[in-house]
């Protein structure tokens, strides 16, 4: 006869707001804490199609958050809220319209609901862009948390701090309801690394390189400082190489940069090689726009970057193109971008999602490994 099972802790009931393609859900699944997403909410039909493909059993509410009543949320009996509110109102290069931006409306509604949620969620994790930390929306969030009896930590980290060769500096806030044991907001500083469990003000060592000053251009419109910074990043053994994240057989016809792009934008491309230990943040415009939307890969082992770029401007268009093409520059595939964003191999796009849409939803998403580590700190 088998003995009766011991009392088991029921899985945490998680509400995933602004669920997109489910970056938070993947992070939750890998953080090692038993949990179930009881509802995911997003208005984007493409993102929802991808979410449903990957999590067919999760209730997905394809409607706007501000249209959902308090009672509907309360029926879920939520333990945890995970959310990535729209970041456009807070981005460095945007208009920074903050709380007056229409896209912040739903977030303010969430803050309004917070004191009325019953039972109050025990844990909250929020992700947003750099810039959010100095917004009125952040102040409203912190005020609501204080009023509802939460303690919280604010953290700014990039995937490089978990050994992934991709920059994606993001703001995170993790909060626990006061019934939980969590020594936080004793300090008002934003941590620039993962908090160590026992001591809230102490950080694990960060590998994010500090901002470098500008200087005269060398070649390819890069200053000596920028080149130096990249060299340093490429020599940091705590970060893995790009080649660990690449697909074995990539259809070059589909991913090589077209001649027009090479001729027009060669000087502003961020180019990395498989042995590099860095890449820039992939944004939603990757594959459509060039400047600052993500790195491209130099796949030809023989061609030397410096030799290709030196004196390039003096050549005819035809000669320039010929030289640039020796680098065999290609875009990272969506699968490779997903790998660099920490998505597990089980993550899949439904076949009918076009390439540009794949880049777009990935660009809106988050680094799964980073969030998973934060969830471990928050929930365990
Ligand atoms: N963390 C997600 C992405 C968040 S991006 C991921 O891993 O993919 C912000 C998301 O919020 C977008 O998918 C957008 O469609 C959604 N969104 C924006 N405003 C919304 C609203 N009012 N109600 C519901 N979803 C909204």
From TrEMBL:
SUPFAM superfamilies the UniProt entry points to: S-adenosyl-L-methionine-dependent methyltransferases
Q: Does the keyword Manganese apply?
A: no
Its GO CC terms are: nucleus
Q: Where is the active site?
A: 87
Q: Which GO terms describe its molecular function?
A: methyltransferase activity
Q: Which Pfam families match?
A: DNA_methylase
Q: Does the keyword S-adenosyl-L-methionine apply?
A: yes
Gene Ontology biological-process annotations: methylation
Instruction: Supply the Gene3D superfamilies for this chain.
Output: DNA Methylase, subunit A, domain 2, Vaccinia Virus protein VP39
The protein's Enzyme Commission number: 2.1.1.204
Write the record's keywords in alphabetical order, separated by commas: Methyltransferase, S-adenosyl-L-methionine, Transferase
Q: Which domain of life is it from?
A: Eukaryota
Give the family from UniProt: Belongs to the class I-like SAM-binding methyltransferase superfamily. C5-methyltransferase family.
Q: What is this protein called?
A: tRNA (cytosine(38)-C(5))-methyltransferase
């Amino acid at each position: 006869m088998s003995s009766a099972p011991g009392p088991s802790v029921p899985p945490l009931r998680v509400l995933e707001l602004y669920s997109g393609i489910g970056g938070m859900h993947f992070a939750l699944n890998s953080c090692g804490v038993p949990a179930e997403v009881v509802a995911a909410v997003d208005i984007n039909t493409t993102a929802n199609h991808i979410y449903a493909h990957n999590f067919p059993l999760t209730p997905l509410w394809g409607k706007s958050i501000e249209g959902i009543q308090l009672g509907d949320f309360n029926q879920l009996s939520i333990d945890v809220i995970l959310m990535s509110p729209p970041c456009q109102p807070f981005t460095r290069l945007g208009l920074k319209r903050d709380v007056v931006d229409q896209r912040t409306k739903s977030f303010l509604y969430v803050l309004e609901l917070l004191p009325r949620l019953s039972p109050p969620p025990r844990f909250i994790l929020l992700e947003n862009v750099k810039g959010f930390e100095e917004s009125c929306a952040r102040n409203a969030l912190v005020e609501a948390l204080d009023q509802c009896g939460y303690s919280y930590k604010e953290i700014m980290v990039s995937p490089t701090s978990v050994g992934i060769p991709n920059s994606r500096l993001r703001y995170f806030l993790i909060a626990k309801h006061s019934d939980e044991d969590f020594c936080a907001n004793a300090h008002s500083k934003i941590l620039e690394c993962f908090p160590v469990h026992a001591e809230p003000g102490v950080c694990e060592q960060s590998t994010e390189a500090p901002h470098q000053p500008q200087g005269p251009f060398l070649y390819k419109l890069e200053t000596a400082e920028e080149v130096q910074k990249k060299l340093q990043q490429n020599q940091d053994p705590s970060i893995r190489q790009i080649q660990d994240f690449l697909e074995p057989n990539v259809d070059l016809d589909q991913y090589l940069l077209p001649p027009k792009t090479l001729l027009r934008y060669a000087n502003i491309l961020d180019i990395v090689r498989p042995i590099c230990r860095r890449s820039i943040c992939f944004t939603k415009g990757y594959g459509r726009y060039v400047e600052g939307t993500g790195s491209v890969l130099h796949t030809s082992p023989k061609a030397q970057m410096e030799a290709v770029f030196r004196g390039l401007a003096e050549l005819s268009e035809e000669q320039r193109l010929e030289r640039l093409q020796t680098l065999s520059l290609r875009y990272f595939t969506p699968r490779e971008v997903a790998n660099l964003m920490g998505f597990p191999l089980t993550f899949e796009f439904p076949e009918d999602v076009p390439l540009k849409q794949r880049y777009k939803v990935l660009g809106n998403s988050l680094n799964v490994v980073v969030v998973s580590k934060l969830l471990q700190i928050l929930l365990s």
